[in-house]
TrEMBL record:
Residues 29-183 form the VOC domain. InterPro entries: Glyas_Bleomycin-R_OHBP_Dase, Glyas_Fos-R_dOase_dom, MMCE/EMCE_epimerase, VOC_core. One of its GO terms (molecular function) is methylmalonyl-CoA epimerase activity. This is VOC domain-containing protein. Gene3D superfamilies: 2,3-Dihydroxybiphenyl 1,2-Dioxygenase, domain 1 (3.10.180.10). Residues 1-20 form the signal peptide.
Amino acid sequence: MKLFQEAIFLLSGLLPFTITASSSELTFRFNHVGISVANLTLQRDWYNRTLGFSSLVEVVGPMEMPAAPTNSSTSASTSKPSTIQAVQLQNPTTGAIVELIWLSSSMPASRLSTSSAAAAAVQGLFHFAYRVPDLDRAIRKLKEDGVHVVQPIAQGAPYVNHEQSTFAYISDLEGNLIELIQME
Ligand SMILES: *[C@@H]1O[C@H](CO)[C@@H](O)[C@H](O)[C@H]1NC(C)=O
Ligand SMILES: *[C@@H]1O[C@H](CO)[C@@H](O)[C@H](O)[C@H]1NC(C)=O
Ligand SMILES: *[C@@H]1O[C@H](CO)[C@@H](O)[C@H](O)[C@H]1NC(C)=O
């Protein structure tokens, strides 16, 4: 027990030092976006058809998850066993990866919304963005395919090394916001 406490003490003493000392030398390469979904089949098909995520990189489950050890009254949904299933899809052209995860006990988020302003009014991650070479063409095609355009094309803020940008928002089947951006 004493050893254990000393180990904790050591860890808590070392950790902040280690992080401060080396954070500028660490490398963080963007890898994927993860989305908790209500219906894995429908969402997988949507990301496949709409955004060209075609190759299945990884599948988890479906498998049973043990009940989470929690006594908090606010997380009742995690206190019973649930089923989990996850897939990773990759766009073969751009290399972008999206991970879709389904948890049988998950709840719909109150952030799922129909405008970017409403989505931004809830703190936390509110959209992810894909760059497209021709936004007009992309939006026209997506509309034809019945994709919900949440916010039409608008002029964006100037970016470093890019004078002009235009952007629009679409949403997936479950209301997750996806920004499409064109930079000149
Ligand atoms: C997902 O949607 C399909 C097609 O509507 C349906 O057959 C299936 O039961 C749904 N799955 C879940 C987990 O709701
Ligand atoms: C996605 O669609 C393509 C055809 O457009 C198909 O070849 C591929 O198997 C699909 N991938 C998944 C993971 O459903
Ligand atoms: C949860 O359990 C911990 C440790 O057993 C206890 O200290 C805490 O008061 C409990 N919280 C609630 C909300 O019951």
